[in-house]
Amino acid sequence: MAFEIVATGHYVPANRVTNDDLARTIDTSDEWIRSHTGIGSRHVAAENEASSDLAFQAALNALEQLSPGNPMEAAQTIDLVVVGTSSPDYYGFPSCACIVQDKLKLEKIGAFDVVAACSGFVYSLDAAAGMLRHGRKRALVIGTDVLTKITDWSDRGTCVLFGDAAGAAILDKTDAPEEGPGRRGIIRSILGSEGAGAQELMCERGGTRNPYKAGETLDKGIVLSMNGQAVYNFAVRAFTDTIQDLLDLEGLSVDDVKKIIPHQANMRIIRAAARRLKIPEDKFFMNIEKYANTSNATIPVALDEYARSGDLQRGDLIMTVGFGGGLTYAGNLMVW
Ligand code: UT7
Q1: Which are the contacts of 299, defined by CB distance < 8 A and separation ≥ 6?
Q2: Relative to the CA of 57, which of 65, 95, 101, 327 has its CA 20 to 30 Å away?
């Protein structure tokens, strides 16, 4: 029994905002943003677009691969929806996954969100695979975020980094072997957390620790904050360790891996890890230049772009690696 991705999709909002556009409203420059992050532009959701809207479009894009011209029909084969998101439509509940389930006109299936910040899609894939083991057949796994609506647009240290997007994968339980020759699907996942670093990247207001009080004026609204240097150091360490640990646990070398699909937070994080692990940079699939950091969506969007590039063949070994708020880190090793 194997748990393998049979279709992928993604969606980005229409509005593309370049670094030069940002430089017109805050004290920054295209040169600074590119040289410090590798980001060239980002897509920003419309006022009436929330995370579930992006997620629904990404899901349709994936389902279209299964049933060209009739994605809603293919949707009826799904019996589990798992959504990784840090910016759900509503605080606490309902989950983004329930809204997606309703948009897809699904009934009598489980639907829930996973909160693991930018590692959320990797966590969600592993959670869904575990749940397919117990009776279900097909899961829709989505990473979606609209972080631009919880961003402080006067803070140049964070606002240049983020964008909005969603990516989706259809995960099937199949008869392919999970071990030995011809194995396919997710063969190993690592999920990690370091809650001691929670304050380094957080949305401090709005939860039950610091609730919004009636009549209170919030200058900046409810926005995320980040200690960039601390997160950078954590990210390089966690990212490097996750890749090495996945390889060691399976007795593999990096040469066995066709491509690593990393969380796209900063090109310099990838370069630093590549140097430490002595991995060529082209082993990593990168699209941060176009989309910036879309949190839960970076990995499924990159996976979809890579899968559609024609380079990914059945039997190829690939790896996803995420890291982010929590602090969390995670990786999946899978045979396509
Ligand atoms: O997905 C979640 C995970 N998040 C991350 O992985 C983010 C990890 N952190 C980072 O990627 C980097 O720390 C940043 C990109 C956020 C910042 O890069 P940095 O090289 O660490 O810059 P810095 O914060 O040390 O700032 C260097 C200088 C400062 O000016 P002074 O004090 O040297 O005069 C900043 O004020 O750059 C300034 N600066 C900017 N200048 C122009 C900070 N942001 C900007 C900006 N434009 N947007």
Answers
A1: 121, 122, 143, 167, 261, 262, 263, 320, 322
A2: 327
Count of domains in the chain? 1
Q: pLDDT digits over 307-316, tens only? A: 999 999 999 9
Of 18-22, 81-85, 204-208, 259-263, which gets the smallest average pLDDT?
Answer: 204-208
Q: Is the CB of 293 under 6 A from ligand 1?
A: yes
Ligand 1 atom 26, closest CA: 157
Q: Whose Cα sits closest to atom 41 in ligand 1?
A: 28
Look at residues 127, 35, 146, 126 and name the one whose alpha carbon lies nearest to residue 85: 146
Q: Is 217 in the pocket of ligand 1 (CB under 6 A)?
A: no
Q: H or E stretch including 331? A: strand 328-335
* Residue 252 bridge partners (DSSP): none
Catalytic residue, chosen from 10, 19, 96, 118, is 118
User: Which residue is it, tokens 């829709």?
Assistant: 140
Reply yes or no on whether 293 is catalytic.
yes
**Active site annotation includes 263:** yes
Helix pair 51-66, 298-308: axis angle to 10 deg: 30
Which CATH number covers residue 29? 3.40.47.10
Ligand 1 atom nearest the C-alpha of 160 is 48
- CA 315, CA 322: separation in Å to the nearest integer? 23
User: Tell me, what's the pLDDT at 178?
Assistant: 85
Q: Where are the alpha helices (DSSP H) in the chain?
A: 19-23, 30-37, 51-66, 71-75, 96-103, 120-132, 156-159, 228-250, 267-277, 288-291, 298-308
Whose tokens are 């039997």? That residue is: 315
| Phi, psi values for residue 260, rounded to 5° | -105, 130
Host domain of residue 231: 1-336
Q: How many CB atoms lie within 10 A of CB 69?
A: 6
